Request: fold
Amino acid sequence: MTATENAGHALLVLAHPRPDSLTAQAADRARARLVAGGFTVDVLDLHTEGFDPRMTPEDEPDWADPDKTYSEEVRSHMRRVDAADAIVVVFPLWWFGPPAVLKGWIDRVWNHGFAYGRGRPWPRKKRMLWLGLVSYTHDQFTELGWDETVARVLREGISGFCGIDDASVHFVYDSLNAGEAVLDATGEALDAFAR
Reply:
């Protein structure tokens, strides 16, 4: 990624409980790449910040009220999402889906009247990259068809449903064995995202 003047503001979301994990290292590499590309970066480490992924009545969508006022915790996350031109989510793929803390963040924050069912468009056009670390090799993952299934849920079921049409999904394969190659693949995904 080459530096550009005023590339925009990125929200980098990390969903892993250990700060020394390969996923955290990949997120750190992503942050450095975004900064080098001219972005200002807001790092949202869901575990470090203590985000509670459990849905509460206060944050449950009210389909009849797109102007519902959600909890202050959720509204503060909504402001961070709103401020972003680019959203990069770095996470391990567990049970062929995002970890519970990330799924809970989507459930609570990407809520009715905010991320979908909006009365107005996003204040700025958004781009999104889902960067998932997968323990399977590329051949194993694609042979089972999980690449298409998981990518479709993330790209269309979440991003597209919420009006983010410029969304991509990149899997980093064999993450338990690939070592430094995982971090290199993270950089490659960000370079492709920036084009």
About this structure: The radius of gyration is 16 Å. The mean pLDDT is 89. The CA atoms of residues 3 and 38 lie 5 Å apart.
